[in-house]
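chain below, 115 aa
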Amino acid sequence: MEEKRKNPRYGIASIAELYFPESEEPMESFISSISKGGVGIYSPQKMNVGQNLDVKITFLQTNGSEEVSEIIPGKVVWVKVLHDSFVVGIAFTTLDNLRHSKLLSYIEAAAQGSA
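prediction:
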């Protein structure tokens, strides 16, 4: 199977809140991995490929003491069934240093093995 990812993925101890345009209530999900290109999550409900959403990621900064939240727009790119839940791949549609500097710093620290 050919590898399609452009960016390496890293583990992150984090929970994501997913905000859908058609819903007022966010859905909480565990994050399985993250990269500069997107995020993998475990979802209690099925999502549709192509669906747009905002992903609010809350994590501990690399110093381990500061909790940080950043919201990144994304799009569902794949969905797989796992027992009674779903594993979902979300591609970030915008991830930039201006709005998401702390998350990018976290990913870069993970790449160097210090996250």
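DSSP finds one helix and six strands in the chain. The radius of gyration is 14 Å.
thats it, cya
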